[in-house]
Automatic annotation (TrEMBL):
Protein name per the record: DMSO/TMAO reductase YedYZ molybdopterin-dependent catalytic subunit
Cofactor: Mo-molybdopterin
Alphabetical UniProt keywords: Metal-binding, Molybdenum, Oxidoreductase
Keyword match Metal-binding: yes
Sequence ranges assigned to domain Oxidoreductase molybdopterin-binding in this UniProt record: 48-222
Record PANTHER family: SULFITE OXIDASE, MITOCHONDRIAL, SULFITE REDUCTASE
Domain Moybdenum cofactor oxidoreductase dimerisation: 234-324
Length: 348
């Protein structure tokens, strides 16, 4: 029988995604050897409920609240006619890596058991939120911009919404309507979403319907219950390699990976092939943008057959690095410890 409703609209083939209830995680081997951006066909999806199909002709974005002098309603055509900006930025779920609290630290937490694939980097095009706020006459007393999605209400908490402090809203946030040169796909927020560089994915509200500018600190379930005190994303690293890959002893491999931090540039990456006994410096290649990731590669000739543990550890320009063990977060957020990536080395 044909499925009439799906939590996610785009195809989720097993070689690109790991499925989790209503969400889909990118397999890191799906990035192997690819360029800077994550193609849409493998970009992770995190939905609280399911992807709504929104008609751009009837869609409206409302900008209002006591923090603006002239409330405004925009339609799709008027948004697309405004001054644009293009940015390359990561969106990462703050629960990315959550399953390692259990598998590495033996201290499980509730929530989607993401590996490291709840991140993607895309080229986003849209209107700077600062432009919209200034057009609407943002007041000096403005405190938060509460962004609200048009997807179905989540449990009994109402529509997904989250306050964004005005300082960040005026800095580098985009109201994006294009992803990798195409109109936003339904799963990623069509017709428009916020893109909040460096911050936890929840800030980047999809299917944007409403921007409410407050003059006092706003409280929603998404900053008081969930994602409380969560803003900038910590340092992480991943190999572009399948979990439990099989490698042949004596062969030469180029191991590729990426490291990222919401705080700034990655200034150092180290890789271990022996579970952290010795460390090697990979070569960084190409550009590395703040709010996105750095790519690196390193040669390895595995000698001894048997199980091996690969590790990658990055440091960003603020000096933040990846510990071997990270303090438990009760909801499984911000897992930034070095991930132990198992591979099997076999005789030729
Ligand atoms: N309206 C709305 N916006 C949302 C969500 C949602 O469920 N509804 N999920 C958030 C979370 S938790 C994350 S991590 C990102 C995921 O973005 P993506 O699905 O485009 O990868 O969207 C955020 N924006
Ligand atoms: Mo998320």
């Amino acid at each position: 029988m044909k499925q009439v409703t799906a939590a996610i609209v785009k195809p989720l083939p097993d070689h690109l995604f790991i499925r989790h209830d209503g969400s889909a995680e990118m397999r890191w081997e799906a990035m192997a050897g690819l360029g800077y951006h994550t193609p849409i066909d493998r970009f992770f999806v995190r939905n609280h409920t399911s992807t709504p199909l929104i008609d751009a002709h009837t869609w409206r974005l409302r900008l209002h609240g006591p923090g603006v002098r002239c409330p405004a309603v925009y339609d799709y055509a008027s948004l697309r006619a405004m001054p644009t900006r293009t940015i390359d930025a990561a969106i990462e779920c703050t629960g990315n890596g959550r399953r390692f609290y259990e598998t590495q630290q033996h201290d499980p937490t509730p929530g989607t058991p993401w590996g490291l694939g709840a991140i993607g980097v895309a080229r986003w095009r849209g209107v700077p939120l600062a432009y919209l706020l200034r057009q609407a006459g943002i007041r000096p007393e403005a405190v938060d911009v509460v962004a609200r999605g048009l997807d179905a209400p989540f449990e009994d908490h109402g529509h997904v919404r989250r306050p964004l402090p005005v300082a960040k809203a005026l800095d580098d946030v985009l109201v994006a309507y294009e992803m990798n040169g195409r109109p936003l796909p339904p799963d990623h927020g069509f017709p428009a979403r916020l893109v909040v560089p460096g911050w936890a994915g929840i800030a980047s509200i999809k299917w944007l319907g409403d921007l409410d500018v407050t003059t006092s600190e706003a409280a929603t379930p998404w900053n008081t219950v969930f994602y409380r005190d969560i803003t900038v994303q910590p340092v992480k690293s991943a190999f572009e390699l399948a979990w439990d890959s099989t490698l042949v002893a004596g062969r030469s491999y180029v191991l590729r990976g990426r490291s990222w931090s919401g705080r700034g540039h990655i200034v150092n990456v180290e890789v271990s092939f022996d579970g952290g006994v010795t460390w090697h410096q990979p070569e960084q290649r190409g550009r590395h943008l703040v709010g996105a990731w750095a790519r690196w590669h390193v040669n390895w000739v595995p000698r001894r057959p048997g199980p091996h543990v690969l590790m990658a550890r990055a440091t960003d320009e603020t000096g933040a690095t990846q510990p071997l063990v990270t303090p438990r977060h009760p909801l499984g957020y911000d897992f930034d410890a070095v991930v132990r990536h198992p591979v099997q080395v076999v005789e030729w």
